[in-house]
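Teaching soon. Invent one.


***
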Amino acid sequence: MAEILIMEPELRLGMKMCDTLTRAGHTCTLSQTIADGLTKLEASDHLLTILNARLPWKDSFAFLRALSDREWPVLFITGDEANAEHLRAMYPAECAVLPTPFDGHALLSAVANLSQATGQLLTLGSLQMDTRRRQVTKDGRELYLTAQEFALLHALMLSPDAALTREQLLRTAWGYQTVGETRTVDVHIQRLRRKIGPSCIETVYKLGYRLKPA
């Protein structure tokens, strides 16, 4: 899940966004001013920031510069769709624009897409992987995987709905340069199935495995 800083001057809207994201498993902090946001930014290891473009631009430039220096993603909120391209062009790191009004589904989708684009959050159906925190959840419930199970699932989630051979999985998840015994893949697949659900990983006859939406 993502650590999110919501920069929203309107308290009621900020609280509503925070509630929606928190219920989905994200960690949220709300700031109504740029000064407070800068303080929270300096105390964080990594952030996805939701920034309302109505905040004063004179103050926002320093805040955005601090984010771009860290190459942290930004989701801009704007009531002017014509301003979307300008916002994207202005921020050099990964960003997206969410026009208002929007509902909770649109907000969660925008956050998931932006997190996935920055390599932090991989999502397939109800299964989510936070690569920075090394955390996997299904239906909002955390799953506890070994390091090797995590690496194997990560390899599968990087190519969702694609059939991967045992040899490909050995190279990607184990780092093997030469292919030897592939039985270890089968053993770890069975362990993963017990944790994420047997229907999530499909056996592809005479080839390997495919990850399916939960």
User: Anything to note?
Assistant: The first helix runs from residue 11 to 23. The helical segments are 11-23, 34-42, 57-70, 84-90, 104-117, 147-157, 166-174, 183-196. The chain is about 45% helix and 25% strand.
